[in-house]
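Re: [help] complex structure
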Amino acid sequence: MSNTRFATAIHILTLLARQPGEWLNSDYIAGSIQVNPVIVRRELIILNEAGLVISKKGKEGGVQLAKPSSKISLAAIYHAVKNTEVLGKKNLNPNSQCPVGRQINDRLTQLFLETDYLVSNALTKKTLADFGKQFK
Amino acid sequence: MSNTRFATAIHILTLLARQPGEWLNSDYIAGSIQVNPVIVRRELIILNEAGLVISKKGKEGGVQLAKPSSKISLAAIYHAVKNTEVLGKKNLNPNSQCPVGRQINDRLTQLFLETDYLVSNALTKKTLADFGKQFK
DNA sequence: TTTAATTGTCACATTATTTGTTACAATTAA
DNA sequence: TTAATTGTAACAAATAATGTGACAATTAAA
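Output below.
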């Protein structure tokens, strides 16, 4: 992950968790992160598809959590935004004439899966509520 | 990590581990990965700085492992090539007028460190020799 | 019914990162 | 003296990430 998507998503959700039932709008959220509101709206679409937020269009609209923050794991957030594996990408065309080239991507698939699982598993144990409690 | 650096590095080292004491050159290695030799040489510089390989310039030169593959952990390889944390980057200027904006980067630093430590710790237990044994 | 605020979304611009390529000085063995 | 090789620079190309302006559709309130 060489992007800020996880940081942006957890920032959004931390704000929402502090005002359950309130419809916060993307301008307000963007003001807290200090990024363009479109960045926030784009991330909100992903979080909506993941079932973590619900949104209301139109005047007095906005977004709120789809469920209590104690039911949202950091793993769910991570899965919603992640786009590469922890150990990165594989090379596309290793040489099949070479024993190492021929087998390496299968071995990496296994190692990459194990490593991702480890991270998922740890994040599953942490909730958004726990994360939010750390803020004064 | 949305790059192929770990995959490239472990590919290089797996090849070297199969021929201990031999000076393999960057063209040969590049042929197995099927990337440009400069990509390989650039990664070799990093692996050299990390104390994992030694190299010899000039005719009949090349690179070999700096120590037995049983003494090289996957964590050492990962550390040599990693350039971002597992959970990505933080936003640069969260709004300090906002309680969440003011505190979030410290909380993320902690979470990111924990997550990275987890991965390091797991990779410390695996050696290049173990990885190499999986190849026929 | 009209107005204002808001999401969802598109198109494009800009910046950053990653990968590829050519070239060559310095080094070393034959 | 020649040929092969690393180390490295400079630049090109491709891909990914972030920023921006615009606007249709929707909704609440005036």
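Chain A has a mean pLDDT of 98.
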